[in-house]
Amino acid sequence: LKMAAAEPGAAPGGGGGGSVPVLFCFSVFARPSSVPHGAGYELLIQKFLSLYGDQIDMHRKFVVQLFAEEWSQYIDLPKGFLVNERCKVRLVPLQIQITTLGNLTPSSTVFFCCDMQERFRPAIKYFGDIISVGQRLLQGARLLGIPVIVTEQYPKGLGSTVQEIDLTGAKLVLPKTKFSMVLPEVEAALAEIPGVRSVVLFGVETHVCIQQTALELIGRGLEVHIVADATSSRSMMDRMFALERLARTGIIVTTSEAILLQLVADKEHPKFKEIQNLIKASAPESGLLSKV
Description:
Blueprint: E1 2-3, E2 19-26, E3 29-36, H1 41-52, E4 61-68, E5 73-76, E6 87-93, E7 109-114, H2 127-144, E8 148-153, H3 155-158, E9 172-176, H4 184-191, E10 198-204, H5 206-219, E11 223-232, H6 236-248, E12 252-254, H7 256-264, H8 272-280
Helix pairs in contact: 2-7, 2-8, 5-6, 7-8
InterPro entries: Isochorismatase-like_dom, Isochorismatase-like_sf, Isochorismatase_domain
Domain Isochorismatase-like: 109-257
Protein name: Isochorismatase domain-containing protein 1
């Protein structure tokens, strides 16, 4: 539970004057309780957690506010505030949208290749194009030393990853039945990569496995980049609405060229020429990106 900058200094709780009634408000709820006379900020937080702990998102930022009679509205809890008389306080989640910058560096990035399997070839729109782009991304990952995690959805029935995609050096290649790639083995692998912050995600299907993977990853605090020219579905409508939904959640929808050039960042990068050659060998532009 992260508190905003408006929180007061750590005022000692406790004191010898019995208890003081306090109304604790959170969301649409208001619950009367009491705290010891002279209780400070820390004791108020503990009380909020005891009353509403099962409803508070511990990863959000909050501010504690006090109802001020003189203003007839809530104000940020004053610095050093101590409870000396009956009062009303509330815990407010901050609604400020923090812009996701989307910076990528090889040392903090991992690539996720999702279910690029043989049985999907005839069903997925522009499958040949996303295979070509996916292979280019994996070549780039090898050049830049970026770990790659690959999954295959029920390979017994749907076949292995297509032969055109070279999985040499992949950190993990896993079968799965769950739609999301976030399996226990994947979480363990991520924990082994020091400083991982960003996931570059591509494969099929956009509205199923890609979408569910992306949502689980951002729920774990990771930044997700979906490669639009390496991601598709059977239906372009499903693909379009999935990308729109994901973009609204703060996931970055981007392209393979943007990803690769962002990772090298400088013409003087020792791998720039090799990355440039990968980009020059791009597949002809299809109708895929017009459906974003």
